[in-house]
Amino acid sequence: MDITTTEPTVFRTSSIETPVTAQELSRLVPLHPVTILRWAREGRIPHRRLSARKIIFLPSEINAWLASNSVYAYTEPVSCVASPEERKAA
Fold it and tell me: Smallest Cα–Cα separation from 9: which of 54, 71, 79, 66?
């Protein structure tokens, strides 16, 4: 019996989800762990903050995010560089 699915999935989810770190997620999606953490900080990727330094990602939320094609919705041009004044203000 051949069972195939039409939807691409990254994780196999169960009733109890095991959260993943940015490092683990980077092995499954085409993004660097630093980019994943930056996008989480900017609100571009669904995440849960456990503490000031601990961010986790739930598989069901990541699957929904990937299905919505939000991964490719990066709106800033790559050549956008902050000026020295902007860097000092940040």
Answer: 66
β-sheet bridge partners, residue 16: none
Alpha-carbon span 55 to 44, nearest angstrom = 14
Alpha-carbon distance 49 to 70, whole Å?
20
Single pTM value for the model? 0.61
Q: Which two tokens stand for residue 85?
A: 């004044």
Summary count for the chain: helices (H), strands (E): 4, 2
82, pLDDT greater than 80: no
Percent of the chain with pLDDT over 70: 59
Backbone torsions φ then ψ of 11, nearest 5 degrees: -120, 155
Contact between residue 59 and residue 45 where contact means Cβ atoms under 8 Å apart = no
